[in-house]
Specification:
Layout (H helix, E strand, L loop, with lengths): L1 E5 L6 H10 L3 E6 L16 E4 L2 H6 L3 H6 L5 E4 L5 H11 L5 E5 L24 H20 L3 E6 L1 E3 L15 H7 L3 E5 L5 E2 L1 E3 H13 L1 H4 L2 E5 L5 E2 H11 L5 E5 L1 H4 L5 H13 L6 H7 L7 H14 L1
Parallel strand pairs: 1-2, 1-4, 2-3, 4-5, 5-6, 6-11, 7-10, 8-13
Antiparallel strand pairs: 9-12
Helix pairs in contact: 1-7
């Protein structure tokens, strides 16, 4: 099939595009072409690269038409963040594609209430990112059920892979936390460290998109959680990281109202976003309908990324 991947040189696209090429598809990668994929792969030599600045094209109401003019049978949108952006693209593609796949987020659920959270739980987003993604999901699923537009939404957790730093055991992107754990130094966790994170390796996310393509009848008109098999607590995460380096985690704890003053305002906001959500999502639906079976546990995915980061 002729597949257009929007945002194909990022976290997911680095793994997805080579998978699609190796499966025999004709792949067109649309991005601003400002960076290369995180990992080299010979399959990229067979990919047609198209440079489009989405924001600029949308201001001129041209983006959807530009994508349609590439004559795709399938469109995979990895970088859509507002309802208006989704609507303008879909309106241009209606009646022209066999499958439209959108990358969502497990943050559409907001606070975890009943865990593991499955796809039937109400959407109660607590941040703008989750709110916009929930609105996109509702729009696509409603359109699919009303008109037959062939939409599928895949909701990843905290994406991790070689080439970028994972969300760490205090819920930020600061690599200093990994350094302190590797050196046996004290790391202070918020509250009791029992909040959760739910990571997923970027290659497992890529595999889920391929599985959705291969299970069209089950995928269309549905949304799926795409995460590792189990979430991890901040405390358990810290213990594991220290053990990778032959250390025993030295942890202390502070109530949130005190802890947030020990880091920068930006880091406090990052941590709050993660611990307020404390995601713990079920993948039973994706297993059953898409044959989704993640190769990596959360800790395996994180370990690969951290050790490559350190070696670099």
């Amino acid at each position: 099939m002729r597949i257009v991947v929007i945002g194909g040189t990022g976290h997911i696209g680095t793994f997805l595009v080579p998978r699609l090429v190796m499966a025999g598809h004709e792949v067109i990668c649309v991005s601003r072409q400002e960076r290369k994929p995180y990992l080299a792969h010979p399959a990229w030599n067979l990919v047609k690269m198209i440079a489009i600045d989405r924001e600029e094209a949308e201001l001129k109401n041209m983006f959807g038409t530009q994508i349609r003019n590439l004559s795709p049978e399938v469109v995979i949108d990895l970088i859509c963040f507002t309802l208006e952006s989704a609507q303008s693209l879909v309106e241009a593609l209606e009646g022209h594609v066999q499958h439209f796949l959108h990358c969502g987020t497990i943050w559409v659920h907001g606070h975890s209430e009943i865990v593991p959270t499955d796809e039937t739980r109400f959407r109660k987003p607590i941040c703008d990112y989750g709110t916009q993604k929930a609105a996109i999901e509702a729009y696509l699923l409603t359109l699919s059920r009303k008109t037959g537009f062939p939409a599928t939404i895949l909701h990843p957790g905290h994406i991790v892979g070689p080439g970028w730093i994972p969300v760490n055991p205090v819920g930020t992107l600061n690599p200093e936390t990994f350094k302190r754990l590797s050196e046996g130094k004290v790391v202070v966790l918020p509250n009791l460290g029992m909040e959760t994170l739910h990571h997923v390796h970027a290659d497992d996310v890529a595999a889920s998109f391929c599985n959705a393509l291969n299970n069209w009848n089950n995928a269309v008109g549905e949304s799926f959680h795409i995460v590792s098999s189990q979430a991890i607590t901040l405390r358990g995460y810290a213990y594991a990281v220290a053990a990778w380096f032959g250390q025993e985690a030295r942890l202390s704890f502070l109530p949130w109202e005190e802890w947030k003053h020990t880091v920068s305002e930006m880091e406090a906001e990052e941590t709050w976003d993660h611990i307020a959500h404390s995601p713990n999502c079920s993948i039973e639906k994706a297993k059953r309908l898409l044959n989704y079976n993640p190769r990596y546990t959360s800790l395996q995915a994180i370990e690969e990324a951290v050790k490559q980061f350190i070696s670099n």
